[in-house]
């Protein structure tokens, strides 16, 4: 789903996303291709376990963000690009680099996919991001295809196929 030629940069973008939207400490929980820590569930548990102590909400909760959006990804990528540059103050156009055009290009990648197959790939990518950032509690937001391909469902299908084969054999 990601360009394989820059896994370090991808990791930085993903950690930045989690740090901004779900808390700096959640960015430490970034792992391989598995589901991310269930941030929302953990925050609910923390609120219950600290009787009387107020627990801060993370940005995604404050703005009622339950899914990763193309515009939030573009925002973070622009922030990372700026942080990795040698520039010391923000400008929309920095020398020959136009952050506004860069942001629009990223958003257009997601929101103006050229054709059905490209849109399906974009949808799967956004579903992957949502699962990695917010954890498993957003299964209802995932497409049926993604649900069908989850490992637990794949195992259930394999087991059913074996059971059917065993039943059908003489």
Descriptive notes:
The chain has 170 residues and is mainly alpha-helical. It contains 8 helices and 2 strands. It has a two-stranded antiparallel ribbon with strand order 1-2. A hairpin with a 2-residue loop joins strand 1 and strand 2 (97-98). The longest helix is centred in the C-terminal third of the chain and has 19 residues, at 116-134. The model is unreliable at 32-40 (pLDDT under 50).
Unreliable residue stretches? 32-40
Oligomer: single chain
Q: Count of helical segments?
A: 8
**Broad shape:** elongated
N-end to C-end Cα span: 44 Å
Beta-strand content estimate: under 5%
Helix percentage range:
55-70%
N-to-C SSE series?
HHHHEEHHHH
Placed side by side, the strands forming the largest sheet appear as: 1-2
Largest sheet: 2 strands, antiparallel
Q: Average pLDDT, to the nearest integer? A: 75
- Coarse structural class: mainly alpha
Overall number of strands: 2
Rg, nearest Å: 20 Å
Topology (SSEs and partners):
Layout: H1 7-21, H2 39-49, H3 59-62, H4 70-84, E1 93-94, E2 97-98, H5 99-111, H6 116-134, H7 144-149, H8 151-168
Antiparallel strand pairs: 1-2
